[in-house]
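Example 395, ligand adenosine-5'-diphosphate.
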Amino acid sequence: MTLDLTDRKSFFSRCRRLVIKVGSAVLTGPRGLNRVMIHRLSDQIAELRERNGDCQIVIVTSGAVASGVRKIGLSERPRTIPHKQATAAVGQGVLMESWEAAFDKYELLVAQLLLTSEDLAHRHRYLNARNTLETLLDWGILPIINENDTVVVEEIKFGDNDQLSAMIAGLIGADLVINLTDTQGLYDCDPRTHASARLIPVVNRVDAKLLACATPQPGAVGTGGMLSKVNAARKCLASGIPMIIAPGKERDILLRLFEGEELGTLFLPRKRLYHGKKLWLANLPKPAGDLILDDGAVLALQKRGKSLLPIGIREIRGTFGVGTPVRCLDQAGNVIGIGLCNYRSTEIDQIKGRHTEEIEGIIGYKHSDEVIHRNNFVLSGEDIEEERAEGGTDA
Ligand SMILES: Nc1ncnc2c1ncn2[C@@H]1O[C@H](COP(=O)(O)OP(=O)(O)O)[C@@H](O)[C@H]1O
Ligand SMILES: N[C@@H](CCC(=O)OP(=O)(O)O)C(=O)O
């Protein structure tokens, strides 16, 4: 797909696979879950599917906690984890039942998927989730996804649905992520505190300057805040997927976007950077451990496109097995990238700082010279732009 905006309408019409994320700020009114909003959005989604016969849509919906608060009759949002989990357990049912009823009038089937970051952190579970989603889309069923708040604890949390939607987009190779929230899009500073804030219509690169525009504090009912949406956009761009932050409460917002109206903030990637395994790695929510590297290894990975050898490893943090994704950090703690280990953490601890010829003598075998092979490694942050889209298989 060409990322040319000269004809906005045709750009949108070429997006056949969509992830639509709807924030609590859109779905929640003073009386809890705003069912009218759910009906309006589902009317538009049904219309989009009708207009573009083969268009496939995945919904990532927030609002379980906000719905639960109202249903239980709590006076404020829960603060402790058990209270949040219990509130979400009540609210998720209400939320799902509303989406289901709204799509029922179009005879559109929906499916609920509740995920934790662990479900996508392990490659086989990631592929499993992908197979389920592909099957549902194949059958013309609308997957409706939320984080599994009821069982989630800090260690296995995506954080928020902005991150989850970016990961789902990578998982299914979406053509576009539409992030619906309660502002017109991304402003050059927080519009709550700066009356002069101006909307940014198009973004090609998420850098430190852009990240500084968005504050992490969400609105009264949100979780992610604008910073999380910009970070999600960064993930999408790294995967070569466009994302738009758009005003979800605006009348006919989805239809108007597809009519080519200039609304929201559109993040446009220059090109698709990663595929298959590398795409999964680039978007991984939580790696299993860290390797601290010396300056030579950092240079080799960042500038020379090399694999990681044991000689450049200074320290290992965490306990992990072979094939596990781990982060590579420089000695100042900056994340260099993420890759799959060829040795387990206890073995790496023994061979760190040593030459490859010494591996066998130390641990009794050697199946590769590299601790992380370049084919199983992606650079992070700014440098990700430099990495070439080397194939990588999907399995
Ligand atoms: N630079 C910015 N541009 C737009 N909105 C911003 C910015 N910085 C902070 N915000 C705030 O982010 C809020 C949206 O985040 P959040 O409450 O998490 O929404 P949602 O529930 O849709 O995820 C907006 O209500 C807005 O006040
Ligand atoms: N999983 C939570 C929503 C978390 C979240 O990311 O909220 P939001 O920032 O409103 O998209 C819920 O359903 O209440």
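Summary: The first helix runs from residue 8 to 13.
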